[in-house]
Amino acid sequence: DAGVIQSPRHEVTEMGQEVTLRCKPISGHNSLFWYRQTMMRGLELLIYFNNNVPIDDSGMPEDRFSAKMPNASFSTLKIQPSEPRDSAVYFCASSSRTDYGYTFGSGTRLTVV
Amino acid sequence: GQQVMQIPQYQHVQEGEDFTTYCNSSTTLSNIQWYKQRPGGHPVFLIQLVKSGEVKKQKRLTFQFGEAKKNSSLHITATQTTDVGTYFCEPNDYKLSFGAGTTVTVRA
């Protein structure tokens, strides 16, 4: 089992550019979460999918952020346009049940300059 | 979203000593999970507690869930340098955020 796979590991982009982060959850896991981690705000839940359907996106900061899960094995988090305050580590996590431990990916460190 | 409170925020421990970190909620929790994040790494699931008063052990780590299911603790005995990192509790409700974590540093 390769675990939760995120790409890219690092992304440096200029303000105003579109950024797409990718996640492949563990096969068989039906819950997928996108988190953002910063020193100031800690780990924040952005959006939660269950069986590919977005259940709660109340954590998405603003309309510049969007997330999709077209199938059970792939999800994307897109920021358009990106801003320096979006700089953070973005984690994807998956779980076989919402009431058990999540497996996190290694994260994408995003820097917007 | 609502967040559990973790104390202390930072814990500086002499190698070989014991310490405890606490996780407190104002509401009753269905269960609680603990994670460890090494510096530069990602959170790794450690354990889930479900029952009132439950105690679980993993080698030198002892996890406890309060009788009222509103608090939890993690006790580490004989701290080692490998224990360095941030320990998070998570109330196992996606609507509730991870706690801010307890960041542990170890003096050799």
Describe how the helices and strands are arranged:
The complex is a heterodimer of chains A (113) and B (108).
Chain A: E1 5-7, E2 10-13, E3 19-24, E4 31-38, E5 42-50, E6 53-56, E7 65-71, E8 74-79, E9 88-95, E10 103-104, E11 108-112
Parallel strand pairs in A: 2-11
Antiparallel strand pairs in A: 1-3, 3-8, 4-5, 4-9, 5-6, 7-8, 9-10, 9-11
Chain B: E1 5-7, E2 10-14, E3 19-24, E4 32-37, E5 44-49, E6 55-58, E7 61-65, E8 71-76, E9 85-90, E10 102-107
Parallel strand pairs in B: 2-10
Antiparallel strand pairs in B: 1-3, 3-8, 4-5, 4-9, 6-7, 7-8, 9-10
Sum up the structure in keywords.
heterodimer, A: about 110 residues, mainly beta, 7-stranded mixed β-sheet, 4-stranded antiparallel β-sheet, about 0% helix, B: about 110 residues, 5-stranded antiparallel β-sheet, 5-stranded mixed β-sheet, globular
Radius of gyration from the alpha-carbon trace of chain A, in angstroms: 13 Å
Structural class of chain B: mainly beta
The secondary-structure element order of chain A is EEEEEEEEEEE
Count of helices of chain B?
0
Percentage of residues assigned to helices of chain B: under 10%
Strand content bin of chain B: over 45%
Please report the distance between the alpha carbons of the first and last residues of chain B.
38 Å
Shape of chain A: globular
Instruction: State the low-pLDDT regions of chain B, or none.
Output: none
Strand content of chain A: over 45%
Task: Give the H and E element order of chain B.
Answer: EEEEEEEEEE
Distance between the termini of chain A: 36 Å
Q: What general form of chain B does the structure show?
A: globular
Poorly predicted ranges of chain A: none
Question: Of all protein chain pairs, which has the greatest interface, and how many residues does each chain bring to it?
Answer: A-B, 22 and 20 residues
What is the quaternary state of this protein? heterodimer
Number of helices of chain A: 0
DSSP E strands of chain A, number? 11
Q: Name the strands of the widest sheet of chain B in spatial order.
A: 1-3-8-7-6
Summarize the main sheet of chain A.
Answer: 7 strands, mixed
